[in-house]
Amino acid sequence: MDTRKPVAAFKSASQVRALAAERGLTPDDEIIIYCFKGARAANTYVAMKLAGFDKLRIYLGSWNEWSRDERLPIETGLPKGAVRLLPLVV
């Protein structure tokens, strides 16, 4: 989302493709989007769809659902497309 505007709006298609490329993601990749409960993932889905990514799925239950089932595997480390946070400078 572009939050520099008075009302937050989707970034342009070229900006979304550039952000995805920085994270090693291309429009040809199969991408499953998730967050904690699925709501924020929906914004990412729409932005990426508008930017030409067609192999998208959203895991609506997201982490909240997956993490409650002890039978399911949990991978450690950052996912392929994860954003690495920079240290907070005060």
TrEMBL record:
InterPro entries referenced in this protein's UniProt entry, alphabetically: Rhodanese-like_dom, Rhodanese-like_dom_sf, Thiosulfate_sulfurtransferase
Record domain Rhodanese: where: 11-75
Superkingdom classification of source: Bacteria
The keyword Cytoplasm appears for this protein: no
PROSITE patterns in UniProt: RHODANESE_3 (PS50206)
Alphabetical UniProt keywords: Repeat
A Pfam family it matches: Rhodanese
Protein name as annotated: Rhodanese-like domain-containing protein
Protein species of origin: Ectopseudomonas oleovorans (Pseudomonas oleovorans)
Lineage, broadest ranks: Bacteria, Pseudomonadati, Pseudomonadota, Gammaproteobacteria, Pseudomonadales
